[in-house]
Amino acid sequence: MSHVDLVDDVREVGTAVLETLAAHIETARTGAGEVVSSADIDTVAKRLELRRWIEEGGMTLPELLSFVTTYSDISAGHHHPGYMAHQIAPSDTPGVVADLLQAMTNNIPLVYELAPAAAAVDRAVCRWMLDNVGWGATGLGAMTNGGTLGNLTALLAARSHADATAWRDGNPGDLVIFAPATSHYSVRKAAAVMGLGERGVYPLRTDALGRIDPAELEPALAEVRAQGKRPVAVVANGCATGTGLYDPIAEVAQFCEDNGLWFHVDGAHGAAALISPRHRGLLAGIERADSTVWDGHKMLRTSALCTGVLFREKRYLDTMFKQDASYLYRPEAEDVDPGQYTFETSKAPLGLKILLTLAYRGEASLRSYVERQYGLATDLWELIQERADFTAPYQPQSNILCFRYEPWGDRQLELRSRLIQDGRFYLSSFALGGRPYLRAALMSPTTDRQTLNDLLEVIVKVAEA
Fold this sequence. Notes:
By secondary structure, the protein is α/β, with parallel strands linked by helices. It has helices spanning 3-29, 41-47, 50-55, 61-74, 93-105, 116-133, 147-162, 166-169, 185-193, 217-226, 249-259, 351-360, 363-385, 412-422, 449-464; strands at 83-84, 140-144, 175-180, 201-204, 230-237, 263-266, 291-295, 307-311, 390-391, 400-405, 426-432, 435-441. The chain is built from 15 helices and twelve strands.
């Protein structure tokens, strides 16, 4: 295919595909169709004719558009008002444009000269995030593919801080990470990858809702040191993935300062509260932490994946990621080569999604979205308070709420499965205090208070059916 053919092909195919996707989203936003398919994977493979396309090829434009339509129909409908399952943003126009721009330019900001525009954008977005956290003057940030890699990067830095030889010589074997059981599973995964093992994560004692109990921090530290182990970091939730509740960050920060411990805040979901004066207090004390992660593909409404891993001090990374790769890195470009500060090498310019969202929608629009979605969880909690058949164990602090339909007792997971098969709503679940709960993560801007009232009514009808 010549360059001219490519241009013509992109114009024809791209226009047709975008129109098809726009029609799908328009339909989903009305609440029509299933919010997520309950079909098994073999049925889905047959509907998409996967074997045919892999073995034969030859897809025509009409067949491509048919594939796009079927694929979209089977996919989870994040724009559907009944989507309430997981913290994945309903993509917005700027993120779509960013993905398209990257697909066409295909620049990789590993080193500055490979992608000058992308590297500049990523740095500008990291500085915006750092300013919001309170680290604009001294901090350093990098964009990475998701909170899991972000947490791993931050904890690697914490390990280097605890033992400067670990990056070169390997894990010394006496290190441990403090984290509540409600921390994201990526914390335990990071510990395993780093050589500490999952048992290298010491479970901090919490209150009944899974939030760190500051009074239990000192005994935990004494116990670990009595065992001859050294703490790498204390991890706090800002907010917890399962419940949407924030740990007492300021109190944990004080404990870490008093004892010379690295403090990491997992703000993948909840750091977006920093842009809201109404909710920023939930993260009070985060400026005293040493590192944090912040996902754009959650409450900043970018397409996946898009995460900032942020450090209070640039010097924290002096003993990490310094590789002998003279074909790529030049000493004089250290401050502008993003690959010097991330676990990855080749990756897309992820900050472009956030930059275009800020430029096209404005920070005030993102602030309104955060406040609206957080308010919806409170609406759901209020509706539950009015009913005897539903209970919720806490008043929400974010856009996430766990609740139960009490007539079904501990059969909440079965009830969730029936709800998915019904097709109108999609919830997730969470075990809190050993008991199963339904879990709503209110992400779609098409969800409103009436939708939440309908949810409760549909749950009752599905249960009775």
